[in-house]
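Usage example:
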Amino acid sequence: MKIIGPDELVFGVDSVEACAAFIADFGLKHSGEKDGSGFYEALDGTGLSVYRKDDPNLPPPLPTNSMLRNTIYGVEDQETLDQIRAELSKDRQVRIQPDGTVEAVDDMGFALGFRVTRRRKLNLLPERINSPGAAPQRGFNEIGANEDAEALPRTLSHVVYFVPDAAKMEAFYVERLGFTLMDRFTGGGPFLRPALNTDHHTLFLIQTPEYMKGLEHFAFHMQGPTELMLAGSRMVKKGYQSFWGPGRHKFGSNWFWYFNSPMGTHAEFDADMDIFDDKWEARELPMKTEHSQIFLLEHREKWAPGG
Amino acid sequence: MSADTTRPLTDVVCRLSDLEDGKAYGFDPFRKGRDTVFVVRRGNKVHAYVDICPHYGSTPLPWKKNAYLTGDAQHIFCSAHGAIFDIETGVCVLGPCLGQSLTSVQVAISEEGEIRFFLEAHDKLICKPVVTN
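Running the assembly step on the lines above writes:
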């Protein structure tokens, strides 16, 4: 199945105003309604949308307090949409929206949408590093630390669901939608990526009791670790609550920094994730804190040495 | 779970007149650099809790300073995973820590309306987390 990755997450929220302010400060650009509802996009056109939780156009909510109402995947072409429709129609209701989006519900009740991807190909500079022993990546007199640099999320990277049956859910994504298992936390869950995505994962599942079902977090890719630090520091300075990070994960190798959000889930900046092809053999580690990050830093107020 | 009133009192954190009815506020009585206790005022009652969600037992609730309530201000809200709690009892009524409680903190309000907490700096401001699997 030529699925590329999550294009859009749709939330039905408690306070559109609070979410609008948060998402704008997170760095996504609003293209929706005056009241703050609608779509917020990253540089490549992937993004989030927020609506009031009682909006009648949203799919029904999960029977928990999760505000996530839809995960919309971008696919390569109409042929892929037809394949998905045929596959899922075998055992569940599939609806086609007027714009061609194929809608269904996965095996744990998460609403899914599939459409021809709206993500744009980006052509941007990477983070450039000067490393002894290697050719410098910045020119002479070219400054790396720029406190006024823009730090805008580039693309929707991944989502993490709490699910009461991670094995069943993994089987759904792998066997029905052609996702690949990349790595696994024993007692935790699998890291999965769709066929056309080279990132370590676009979906991670965590085994939990039924009443926890929902969204643990979503993440957007930043240019690199420096941009991630800048973006996160700006959030802290604005008074937002850091949850975990900054640090670097073992599985996926991505830098991370998570924040609490009024969408009732964590918003993560990530950067420098590993990429893979079909030759990769999945690893397995126990779900322990020591395997969750290779290091973790704690943010503190700026400081300088002095006499 | 209540803190007991034989504990020493913190310094005055604010006055009752500083707290708007129906709103929540975070405080850092021990200067740890982050809010560790929050209050919700309802009429002349002030409900106070340790700013730690029982879900993981070690992480704070708000998504920004003083952001502890749902949009309609009828419940306490944990912005990590959306858990909601009864304001008067601190019990989680929906969400990942269903049935667990916030740790309540006893409040002392003087005749002049000065507010202090019965709490010690070295109090373990952590609660027993929910087991996830």
